[in-house]
Design goal:
Strands 13, 14, 17, 18, 19, 20, 21, 24 and 25 form a 9-stranded mixed β-sheet that branches. The protein is mainly β. A hairpin with a 2-residue loop joins strand 3 and strand 4. It has 3 domains: 27 residues, no CATH class; 82 residues, Immunoglobulin-like; 259 residues, no CATH class. The N and C termini lie far apart (98 Å). Helices cover 6% and strands 30% of the residues.
Length: 433
């Protein structure tokens, strides 16, 4: 009996050398022999299939940048933005901001935020967007932010010499959450206003640590030097620390808290890299543990105000009906609480609560966490500035007479609604922090 060997190829199926060279029988060969399989490029000599080379996806345009605030200056607007979540697989080479009014558009490119767009018309409302650029092209546009450039008002700059110079305080705060001595001192030279303090509040506070805020008030050495004769600059500057109260406690309206597009576990009150900036005030979703002074405590023990410093106002002899000088901004201009004259240039016009010119957007920005879970007002990006809507400009300030400056001066006002404390300054700040 003839034996059958299944591993051998019948002679009639074995191609000759010439055919192998031409590859005429390569498909059949590859079916019968692991050795021939290797020769055909389909695996190794031991029968292991060859690895599939990785496929690199083609690069695309970047994602849309996140939009921030637009700060108006004299024929200029500074458009803040954040980098997109994706660069499309190709490095971002820059950004282009475009401001449009009717049929007219003006653009400017920049490598970093903010983007200064020049050549705008004062008093004209512009709708501004930002796109990211890479080697493939430009991204979809960001959400829209509105801005209206304005000329520098006459009388905006002035010497502040003689006001809040040579004042100091040192008193024990027996509040259960403090039990420390609050110290502060303001002095002036011919060119500078100088603060030294320990950051301890000199008025009653809430409970710290407490719900929403696990931090304890501590002494935090504080020093700042501002110009004595401030002047309004061509374009405002965004700041983190908006100034210091007369008692040496800082004014810092924004938070470090953020959310990602999905909300939920992407939200982090202590920081994080989310695109959506959480507000401390004006919302009820997130609890930052602020007290009746609209203040709370940072991890380093720094007590600070996010809004109306009620305890400080009372300590300074002010009230809900007064125009009270409560502090100084980093550009050297004064900060008042709540009220101002009905006619900015007329001290006989009576006081009223001044209104900011910000409002909630009618339509949420693209990719924002759902409003069903996070109602409008939860994030800084939910607000837009509308020139002339209220009494104050985009930095929550205006030029006018005050009790301390009867000839008029540019000054900031802390309001009961967003932005609460101005988040930019019209002059040149000594520091943004």
């Amino acid at each position: 009996m003839r034996k059958h060997h299944p591993t051998s190829s019948p002679a009639s199926l074995r191609p000759g050398p010439a055919l192998l060279r031409r590859g005429a029988f390569a498909p059949a060969v590859c079916l019968f022999s692991a050795v021939w399989l290797s020769a055909c490029g389909g695996g190794s000599s031991d029968g292991t299939p060859a690895a599939t080379p990785p496929v690199t996806p083609a690069a695309t345009v970047p994602g849309a940048p996140g939009i921030g605030v637009a700060i108006a200056g004299d024929t200029i607007a500074s458009i803040a933005f954040t980098a997109p979540a994706s660069d499309g697989g190709s490095a971002i080479t820059g950004y282009r901001a475009t401001c449009t009014a009717g049929a007219a558009s003006i653009s400017a490119t920049t490598a970093t935020s903010p983007a200064p767009v020049t050549g705008l018309s004062n008093g004209q409302n512009y709708a501004c967007t930002v796109v990211a650029l890479n080697a493939v092209g430009s991204s979809p546009a960001s959400a829209v932010v509105s801005v209206a450039p304005a000329a520098v008002p006459a009388g905006s700059g002035s010497s502040t010499a003689g006001v809040s110079c040579g004042i100091s305080g040192s008193e024990f705060n027996s509040s259960a959450s403090v039990n420390l001595t609050a110290t502060y001192s303001w002095s002036c030279t011919s060119t500078s206003r100088i603060l030294t303090a320990n950051g301890v509040p000199n008025h009653p506070v809430g409970t710290f640590p407490g719900p929403g805020n696990p931090n304890r008030i501590a002494e935090v050495p504080t020093a700042a030097t501002y110009v004595i004769s401030p002047a309004v600059a061509a374009i405002p500057t965004a700041v983190i620390t908006s100034g210091y109260g007369i008692n040496g406690v800082k004014l810092e309206p924004a938070t470090a808290g953020t959310c990602g597009d999905t909300g939920g576990t992407s939200c982090n009150l202590a920081g994080g890299g989310g695109a959506w900036s959480i507000e401390a005030l004006g919302q009820s979703v997130f609890n930052f543990g602020v007290d009746s002074n609209n203040a709370h405590v940072q991890p380093n023990g720094s007590y600070h105000y996010h809004g109306m410093p009620e305890g400080l106002i009372t300590k300074l002899g002010g009230s809900i009906t007064s125009m009270t000088l409560v502090g100084w901004a980093p550009d050297g201009f004064p900060i008042y609480a709540r009220n101002g004259y009905a006619v900015a240039s007329n001290a006989a016009s009576g006081l009223k609560a001044l209104a900011s010119s910000y409002r909630l957007k009618t339509t949420p920005d693209a990719n924002r966490p759902a409003t069903s879970a996070y109602p409008m007002g939860a994030f800084s990006q939910d607000y837009e500035y509308v020139a002339g809507l209220g009494d104050l400009d985009q930095c929550n300030g205006r030029t006018g007479v005050t009790p301390e400056f009867p000839e008029g001066i540019y000054h900031y006002v802390i309001t009961a609604t967003y932005p609460f404390v101005g988040r930019c300054v019209k002059g040149t700040p000594a520091s943004i922090r």
